[in-house]
Amino acid sequence: MINWLHYFLWQSLLGRTIIGYLLMFVVPLILPVIFITLVGARGLRHMFSYEPQQTFVHTLDPRIKVLYPFIISTLSILLNWNFVYPLLLFTLIPWILVRPSSARARVVLTMVMTPALGLIWSQSLFYTISTTSLHMIYSFPPTLSWLGTPGLSIEGLLNGLQQAGRVMVATSATLILLLTTKPSEVIWAFYKFRMPAAVGLAFTVALRFLPQLIERTTVLLQVVQVRGYDLSRPGWRELNAWPGYLSRIFAVIPIVTVPLLIGSLRSTSTTAMVVDARAFGTQQKRSFLHEHRLQKNDYLAISALALLAAIVFLLLILHIATRQA
């Protein structure tokens, strides 16, 4: 029995085709499921919202916190991949100073790791620059040649691991900005950088629109189920129930999309009226209730970033951490 199963899965054309389809389509679907399970709509909404605390990072000048993701992301692009992971450790310092709750830390870790894992898996399948020297973990049969990938390769996994470091660095640096900075402070920082205040407003509104959209979608699906529409997912053994479940999923899409679109238009109209009521954009020179001045903590943060940038540029000049093609 074991020998027959081994032959079917690893040597027969049908078995290898089934495994190839599972690797291509089922495994990538696991990441969104894990993301939704660990984060959820409420967790995502809270992740993109400001959390008031009295920490070192919260008290920093908003201009420093807005520049921080751009500086860190630029340095990660310049560095070779094996130096990006020490840079990732540097981005953990603000999180240690903020000391988020265990629930918030789980959400942050999920949001940092999920895109990185997806990138690693996609590169393991589609990294085919040197197809003649690839060491295959699992080779796809000829029936899957239309996918454009020979299979799962070690070189692809390593290349994905190299690229994932830069994704995690940028995500970690950006999330700390969202957690510790008020929307008004972001607008103030953009204005002080001689950029239109509307850019800062659009930035903050866009960051909060996505979690609101997900939350509204979740609420609409719950409303549909309360009114008797069956969206309960069958078990993996109930093969006969899956076609009906998939048909109900496709049928509910227009039912949810129309009220979602109407609600989004109403929210946009309300936001526009609030902006107009506060005379946003009527004056070229804006005034703010709180004007930030550089304090001791700000100079410490600037010194740390300057020292980090100096070390990186020194490594690049000495051709120690130069990014390899």
UniProtKB/TrEMBL annotation:
<keyword id="KW-1133">Transmembrane helix</keyword>
<dbReference type="GO" id="GO:0005886">
    <property type="term" value="C:plasma membrane"/>
</dbReference>
<keyword id="KW-0812">Transmembrane</keyword>
<dbReference type="InterPro" id="IPR003339">
    <property type="entry name" value="ABC/ECF_trnsptr_transmembrane"/>
</dbReference>
<feature type="transmembrane region" description="Helical">
    <location>
        <begin position="299"/>
        <end position="321"/>
    </location>
</feature>
<protein>
    <recommendedName>
        <fullName>Energy-coupling factor transporter transmembrane protein EcfT</fullName>
    </recommendedName>
</protein>
<feature type="transmembrane region" description="Helical">
    <location>
        <begin position="21"/>
        <end position="41"/>
    </location>
</feature>
<feature type="transmembrane region" description="Helical">
    <location>
        <begin position="245"/>
        <end position="263"/>
    </location>
</feature>
<keyword id="KW-0472">Membrane</keyword>
<feature type="transmembrane region" description="Helical">
    <location>
        <begin position="70"/>
        <end position="98"/>
    </location>
</feature>
<dbReference type="Pfam" id="PF02361">
    <property type="entry name" value="CbiQ"/>
</dbReference>
